[in-house]
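Please predict the structure of the following assembly.
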Amino acid sequence: MVWRRRPAYALPALAMIAFAGLLTFSLVRLIQVEQDMRSNVSENMLWVITQAQVASHRLDEEVHRLTLGDQAARPALRYDVLTSRLVLLDEGPQRRYLAALGFAERVDDAFERLAAIEPQLDAIAPDAVAAADSIHAELKPLMQDLNRIANAVMVEEWETTGERLDRHRDSTLQVIASVVGLMLCGLALGYLLIGALRQRRAAQQALAEHRDQLEVEVERRTQDLEAARHRVAAAIDTAPDAFAAFDTDGRLALVNPKLIQMLPEASRALPLGCSLEHALAVLRECDDNGELEDAANDPRERTLRCDLHITELGWLQLTMSASRDGGHVMRLADITPYKQATEALQRALQRERGVSDFYRSFAAMVSHQFRTPLAVIDSGLQRLQRRGERLGGEERQQRYRRLRDSVAHMTRLVGSSLTAARLDGGQIEAASTRCDLRQLAEQCCRLHGEASGTSRIHLSPGDDTPIMAYCDPVLVEQILTNLLSNALKYSPDDSAVEVCLGHDEASIYCAVRDHGRGIDAADQAQLFERFFRSSNATDQPGIGLGLNIARHLARIQHGDIDVHSRPGTGTTFRLLLPHADTAAIETGEAQ
Amino acid sequence: MLECDDSDITAVSFRLRAAGLLAGIALPVAAAALPPPDTTPLLRVSGDIAHPNIGEEAHIDRSLFASLPRQTLDTTTVVTDGVSHFEGVLMRDLLDAVGAQGDEVVATALNDYIIDIPMQDFHDYDVLLADTMDGETLTPRDKGPLWIVYPRDDHSELQDIRYDYRWVWQLEQLEIR
């Protein structure tokens, strides 16, 4: 391409240089001719010499006229005129011209002859023929010289003119040649110009065609893009999930109908153009799961994926990712069915795990707690076997009673262990309902008093108004039985156990108070731990499960058990239960 | 070019007015008719003239010629070398003095050379009627007694053969037409 482009410029440049050169040459030649034609020194020379000749003949004529008697003849004037003519011939340019032709001496001769004639002029008079002849003798060679000079000047002028014509013809021919050259250059330039114009036209046509093609192509691509956009829009519109697109400035640019359908309230708070942060804040407002709260402070930095729980709608999964151009796309998918299935699976797994825990716990308790009573029973039976006949009836009966006590203890132990294991495995669930705690406490105190054959239990009198708690009556009965039996067990036989009911702002309670030995402050903290036995309770049979189970049972009813004790004075255990009204409202039981 | 032409025209018209003014001043002096020639005249002026002194002709002798304003002119000529110094009177002044009123002047020389010169030349250019050249009085044996000299070096258009033939020497007579 490079080597082709150079001639494309070189040729016109060459033509233009040639054009300018030829033009300059022609002009120079023409100017030379013009100047040459102006120099006309020689042209006047023929006239000058001829006039000198005429003047010489007039002098001769006047001399002879006067001799013949013509008084009007004035030879002196003619002499002056001839003199002036010769003076003219003798002056600068004329003298040089004649000298060049070799006639300088003859001009000098002419002056000498004139000088010779002048004194003879006075002698001219009518009939003075001799004087006239004398003057004629001087004039004749002068006239012959002038004639010769005139001939030479004529020849010279013709020669000069001929040479000049030759020069002019040469110059004219050169100018003609130059003009032909100029014409050729002009033609070449014209040809190049036409070629360039053609090329330009062709290039313009090609460009126009290319542009047309491009336009068609652009139109086609635009249609394709439009179709693709329609497909995408249709896909987004009919998608089962909600979509929202944000532009590079984080402004909401697009929302599909599903979003409006899914979140009518929230979508009203999300006009097009609102910021991504605002959109997230609106969603955070709807959500009660809290997962979105923990999401990144600057959501534009990274992608986001979290679950939202919307009341009256269910679970939504929010997915947000950055698009390639710097915008963001948000997707909200309804995952309520998956979430419910997950929760069901979670519960099933929990139950299975509870069963497993129950067996493990029960096995551990059995292996740990059952050895001692079994050993006691075994040793008692061995003693009876060895010394049975030798023992008195009373003593044998006593030993049988002890063995039966041990068996009874074991039975209780099995019962307690089962309860504890069930609690561990999450097998026990509270069937809470609205209950009158007073009625429950009265029944419990009565039954326990009857069973243990004692009248130490005193229920503090009330006004018969029901104290409504939200609890499972079976579990409450079990707890109160445990607390009552503990109070009886760890206080003197003649002391009373007082049961009283009350309530405060937070809860309803039933307090069981004994006047026993009390519990050391150090032990109080560990009192509800499994298998813990207080240091001053070792004289009583027990396995350290009762209080632990009681507190567990209280807690699964959203209640609790607390203890106030002073060693030597007594101990008070309180069963705390939720108010029937507040608890019912919280769980929706009231409906 | 236009400005040049304008200025030329202005110069010409100014010169014309100056000539008229000069004539107006000169007229009362010359209007009393030219004095008759005392000696052989240098020049005879005939034709349409207002102030003849001999018959219908005005004969200018040396004293009358000397009474006209003297002017000098330095110029080259086609028949001599170098710049020559001429003295004499302006053709314009002389023609005004004789009250010439024509468009053409026919100049006749002692050597029978007869040339028609437009009157306009003498208004356009300071054409000198010289009686001396380089300080020497012109004689009939040279270019005398009078030589019409154009200011050739001051005006390039005068360097032309069509003006060269108007340089009449040995001037003897002028006829105003």
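Residues 50 and 99 of chain B are 4 Å apart (CA to CA). The two ends of chain B are 35 Å apart (CA to CA).
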